[in-house]
Amino acid sequence: MPRYNGHDGSVKIGGTAVARVNTWQLDEETDVLSGYGMGETFEESHATVNRWSGNFQVDYHHNDAATGGITIKSEITLELLPAEDVAPNESWTGTAIVTAIGNAASKSDFHKTTISFKGTGALVKAAISA
Predict the structure, then answer these.
(1) What are the tens digits of pLDDT across the range 103-124?
(2) What does DSSP assign to residue 63?
(3) CA 40/CA 44 separation, integer angstroms
(4) pLDDT per residue over 5-39, tens digit each?
């Protein structure tokens, strides 16, 4: 399994790279239905529907082409890359809805913006080609 240096990761919205990304996080989940009948001694479980969500944090810049027009409820095409955008690295791509935008300022750091999202539809994990 390849190991990636987070320094080379990136986030793209609509194919445009987001400037000054500090971190990103992606969570994939599934619902599980569980049950048992009378006389049974073990519970049986079945995976049902999948979902994905996450967030990314950037150093705020009001002129960033990728994030400048984003508001909560915006629907975005998102691509998350753990390493450089070159083969044979991998990426995760999907459509998501922006669920929250947080801002934080500190006297000893850059203004940070955190954008949270929830996937709508499938999340595609694929190898980057050429």
Answers:
(1) 998 898 888 999 999 999 999 9
(2) T
(3) 10
(4) 566 789 999 998 888 899 999 999 999 999 999 99
Which DSSP string do the residues of 71-106 spell out, in sequence order?
Answer: -TT-EEEEEEESS-SSTT-EEEEEEEEEEEEEEEEE
**Number of H-type helices and E-type strands within the chain:** 0, 8
**Amino acid identity, residue 11?**
V
**42: helix, coil or strand?**
coil
Whether residue 88 is preceded by a cis peptide bond, meaning omega within 30 degrees of 0, is yes
Whether the Cβ atoms of residue 96 and residue 26 lie closer than 8 Å to each other: no
Q: Bridge-partner residues for 103, per DSSP?
A: 113
CB-side exposure of 11: number of CA atoms within 13 Å?
26
For residue 62, give the H/E element and its range: none
DSSP character at residue 128: P
Strand partners, 58: 21, 113
When pLDDT is averaged across residues 86-114 and rounded to a whole number, the result is: 88
Residues 6+ apart with CB under 8 A from 63: none
Residue 77 one-letter amino acid: T
